[in-house]
Amino acid sequence: MAGIGGWQGLGDDGRSGGSTAAARAAAVADRLALPWPSEGQSSIAVEGLGSLGSRGGDEPVPIASVTKVMTAYVVLKEHPLRDGERGPQITVDDTAAQEALSLSESSAPVRAGQRFGQRDLLELLLLPSGNNVARLLARWDAGSQEAFVAKMNRTAAGLGMTRTTYTGASGVEPTTRSTADDQLKLARRAMEEPVLRAVVAMRSTTIPGVPGTVTNTNRLLDKPGVIGLKTGSSTPAGGNLMWAAEAKSGSTRHLVLGVVLAQRAGTTPTEGLQAALDSSGRLIDAVQQDLPDALSAHDGKAVHA
């Protein structure tokens, strides 16, 4: 996989800088017959090109466990890791251990007194989507979940996520709300963090002290070129997915980022998540298949980002 440094960055608004570049992105997008979902919100951008468009408006909606991308991002900003480092040891407290027994939310099977490296807990946060681990990391970093949530909201404001409100570290609260466009801004930043980028690309892992194999809830990682990011689902939120994939154009690999929110909201989390995976999969297939021709047709030659 190409490092993020191999891809040209977008401007702070999620588009390449300048009106000319924005016009080029719009022209390329017009040549793509993207199968936008008929419900919820969606947004897609290509690094080095810009926005391919968005659908569904900008009214904030619950985002469920997509929230954990911001949780991981804040933790890594406060406690940076180099890829390959396990990081400081963190002790599982009684609260996280009790929450591991919950039958009403996703959790990681940890026991009081166990000690895990920071990287291990990030994997338990992002792959099986452990809500108890999200809150444990929040307490470890800031002393309380409330103090950590304040950091999340300050970070969101700093990234220009003006229609986002975090009310918890896990996303279980339906009051944590955002938009596809806002979450796309976070996706860009997340893919610039080497450790976060490496974790969200993992299909599975094993962690000492945790029984069995830890499997990623993002089943789209089985598709060629998909390299992240995070699922989220609940009855009020429906199915949500922040995704990252590569589209090839000749020898060039373009990083494509997308967010799909509120798929089959009001149904079961399982049904909503499957709808989000299906909708995102169709978008990824279309971009991977048609982007090279759209770029060539607009520029009159193969484009290298």
Automatic annotation (TrEMBL):
Domain of life: Bacteria
Keyword line: Carboxypeptidase, Cell shape, Cell wall biogenesis/degradation, Hydrolase, Peptidoglycan synthesis, Protease, Signal
Matching SUPFAM superfamilies: beta-lactamase/transpeptidase-like (SSF56601)
Alphabetized Pfam families for the sequence: Peptidase_S11 (PF00768)
GO molecular function, one term: carboxypeptidase activity
Ranges for domain Peptidase S11 D-alanyl-D-alanine carboxypeptidase A N-terminal: 55-256
Entry's family note: Belongs to the peptidase S11 family.
PANTHER family: D-ALANYL-D-ALANINE CARBOXYPEPTIDASE, D-ALANYL-D-ALANINE CARBOXYPEPTIDASE DACB
Protein name: D-alanyl-D-alanine carboxypeptidase
Organism: Streptomyces formicae
